[in-house]
Backbone:
């Protein structure tokens, strides 16, 4: 009985430590650049939220990519990858860090953003 209780307590901590469906990620960039046409432009860092659903992510309203819903391409315990419907934008999350890239076809430029995300219960 003592071992069973220890295992249940340990599993409770593990489930809190691993993000999952329904979790909200609070993200802040530490690099935000636009690359193209022989130039690089740096932008101010941004903050945004993402909610992880079973087959998609939802960007926070009124924020970067506000309210957009992206398809979840891959999802495991510590990692998820999502893409927009045109497959020009990708969001990668792995153990508290994120990378975002989006190809702006009309301008032949690419946005690249990376930073950190936290989840709170």
Residues:
């Amino acid at each position: 009985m003592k071992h069973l209780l220890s295992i249940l307590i340990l599993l409770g901590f593990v489930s809190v430590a691993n993000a999952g469906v329904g979790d909200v990620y609070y993200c802040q960039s530490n690099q935000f650049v636009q690359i193209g046409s022989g130039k690089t432009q740096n932008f101010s860092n941004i903050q945004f939220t993402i909610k992880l659903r079973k087959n998609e992510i939802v960007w926070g309203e009124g924020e970067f990519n506000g309210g957009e819903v992206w398809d979840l391409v891959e999802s495991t315990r510590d990692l998820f990858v999502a893409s927009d419907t045109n497959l020009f934008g990708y969001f990668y999350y792995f153990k508290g860090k994120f990378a975002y890239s989006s190809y702006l076809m009309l301008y032949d430029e690419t946005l690249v953003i990376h930073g950190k995300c936290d989840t709170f219960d």
